[in-house]
Amino acid sequence: MKIAVLGTGYVGLSTGVCLSEVGHHVICIDIDDQKINRLRQGISPIYEPGLEDLLTKNTAAGNLQFTTSHQEGIENAEVIIIAVGTPQRNDGAADLSYLLQAAKDVSAHLKPDSIVVIKSTVPVGTNDYVKSIITNHTKKPFKMVSNPEFLRQGSAIKDTMKADRIIIGSEDKEAALKIQEMYRPLNVPILMTNVRSAEMIKYASNAFLATKISFINEIANLCEAVGANIIDVANGMGKDKRIGEAFLQAGIGYGGSCFPKDVKALLHTAGLHGVDFSLLRETIAINDEQQKLLFTKACSRLKQLKDKKIAMLGLSFKPETDDMREAPSIKIAHLLHEAEAKVVAYDPVAKDNAKKILGDTIEYASSVDQAIENADAVFIVTEWNEFKQLDLTEVTKHMKQPIIFDGRNCFEENKIRACSKIEYYPVGKPAIVVGLDT
Ligand SMILES: NC(=O)C1=CN([C@@H]2O[C@H](COP(=O)(O)OP(=O)(O)OC[C@H]3O[C@@H](n4cnc5c(N)ncnc54)[C@H](O)[C@@H]3O)[C@@H](O)[C@H]2O)C=CC1
Ligand SMILES: O=C(O)[C@H]1O[C@H](OP(=O)(O)OP(=O)(O)OC[C@H]2O[C@@H](n3ccc(=O)[nH]c3=O)[C@H](O)[C@@H]2O)[C@H](O)[C@@H](O)[C@@H]1O
Questions:
Q1: 13 CA to middle of ligand 1, Å?
Q2: Which residue in 18, 223, 258, 410 is the catalytic one?
Q3: All residues at 6 or more sequence positions from 62 whose CB lies less than 8 Å from its CB, including other chains
Q4: CA geometry: angle at 430 spanning 392 and 208, to 5°?
Q5: Which of 94, 231, 280, 351 makes a 20 to 30 Å CA pair with 240?
Q6: Which three-class secondary structure string do you get for 51-82?
Q7: Quick one: pLDDT at residue 438?
């Protein structure tokens, strides 16, 4: 099948690469010529395990092309997948400006009877709106399908090739069947729905997962207050199949390019329709507080943060990505900066993106050792494997005070107790102090 994909972000690129891998002819279009130039050289503009290999392989095989020309990309495509960004507007609603421009780009070049697929996350009703825009710009017949995406950054290729489900929303049976056919080689369960249900499934899924995280974070805070252990509690809850083990990891709140914006967008949609979705307001409020947790704990332990050296380990919103969008590290760095602490951060891959947001409010180390040297405290912000494997005895030896605030519960109790001197503050578990009087 000949497929055009608009947008080479996480979603467009992963989709394009995976569809080419299963034998389709894919041309990816982006308005960013630097991205397209890099992609043509086989360089991925994002850090995503496994992506570059498939990119090089399928480009060499001639299944995968890149262009900045909408005409070149769209004019021969049977299926046109729109995967442009839908960021957050100031009022919480989804900003559809990229999508609307993409719709115009599509209408200018589509060939008759092609299928336009919206993969971007869009509020209920947007597919219908886009359909009316394309109809206003072209007389050529076309069909629309809503096909939201559920991949996670850091495992985008695996999530696409082995998805739990594919949602195909359309009022047109023939178009739905053609998209089902396009995905058949992936051998993934497919659910056909109407367009509005497909749009809602995406937001409901993200909002539910975000709420699950806020719930477990509140339970963790309560565990700390009553002396319970969140790891055991989450384990015990997760064994119940109705609850499930996934997304019960307590920490310092969710971040990323989607949960924060999608929860707010759903709340906005609810408001527009007179539904008071107060649960989502709480999900957001709990998350905002949770992102301050390490700072609050450090204030209460160290009293005065002015001129204290804090080593921040991790900047990206989660491991295996260099994405800094809505990362908890941003709020933490701002709070520490306001408190006049000296922050030295290390992240295996997110340094360049972090610099664009945090500038010189913090310093950037090029290794863990450099960050922790003479630090008054370490904040573990992202659970990179590199940090989980740290030798805590070595780490604490190089610090001014052996105090660790672990926002991601990276270490087992026996590893911490093996240190000769440490003060270790996890999330939702009792603090551990070894070899010190506090
Ligand atoms: N990042 C993720 O993990 C996931 C994102 N989504 C949703 O997918 C959509 C895309 O997200 P990302 O891939 O993260 O976006 P992104 O913002 O990283 O990339 C979007 C790309 O689209 C390009 N673009 C904008 N207008 C264009 C046009 N008219 N023609 C061609 N290219 C154009 C931009 O230059 C950019 O490279 C969003 O709606 C997002 O909510 C859904 C599931 C997962
Ligand atoms: O719509 C999207 O963009 C995507 O959003 C999330 O994917 P992603 O943002 O890549 O990352 P997640 O692995 O879901 O993590 C999101 C945030 O939640 C946090 N999290 C996750 C799981 C958990 O148990 N605890 C927890 O605090 C992570 O640290 C991270 O900050 C969803 O998991 C994807 O299904 C969805 O497609």
A1: 9
A2: 258
A3: none
A4: 100
A5: 280
A6: HHHHHHHHHHCCCEEEECCHHHHHCCCCEEEE
A7: 61
pLDDT in tens, 241-291: 999 999 999 999 999 999 999 999 999 999 999 999 999 999 999 999 999
> What ipTM did this prediction achieve?
0.98
Q: How far apart are CA 36 and CA 5, in angstroms?
A: 13
- Is 258 annotated in the active site? yes
Q: Which protein residue has the closest C-alpha to ligand 1 atom 9?
A: 120
| Radius of gyration for the alpha carbons in the chain, expressed in angstroms and rounded | 24
Rounded Cα gap, residues 311 and 300, in angstroms: 17
| Residue whose structure tokens are 């590290």 | 329
Q: Which atom of ligand 2 is nearest to the CA of 262?
A: 1
Measured CA to CA, the distance from residue 39 to residue 35 in angstroms comes to 6
CATH class of the domain whose range is 2-193: alpha beta
Percentage of the chain beyond pLDDT 90 is: 97
Cα distances (angstroms) measured from residue 344 to each of 43, 172, 218, 220, 247: 30, 55, 29, 28, 30
- What are 104's two structure tokens? 């115009």
Nearest residue (CA) to ligand 1, atom 29: 102
Contact by Cβ (8 Å): 60, 15: no
Among 3.30.70.2860, 1.10.10.10, 3.40.50.720, 3.40.50.2300, name the CATH number for the domain at 291-434: 3.40.50.720
Cα atoms in the 13 Å half-sphere on the side-chain side of 61: 16
The closest residue, in CA terms, to atom 13 on ligand 2 is 152
pTM: 0.96
Shared fold status for 2-193 and 202-289: no
Contacts of 233 (CB under 8 A, 6+ apart): 219, 223, 428
What letters, b where the CB count within 10 A reaches 16 and e where it falls short, cover 399-423? bebbbbbbbbbbbeeebbeebeebb
Tell me, using a 6 A CB cutoff, whether residue 332 lines ligand 2: no
Q: How many helices (H) and strands (E) does the chain have?
A: 19, 15
244: Cα separation from own chain's centroid: 21
Q: Write out pLDDT tens, residues 171-180.
A: 999 999 999 9
Q: Which fold has domain 202-289?
A: N-(1-d-carboxylethyl)-l-norvaline Dehydrogenase; domain 2 (1.10.1040)
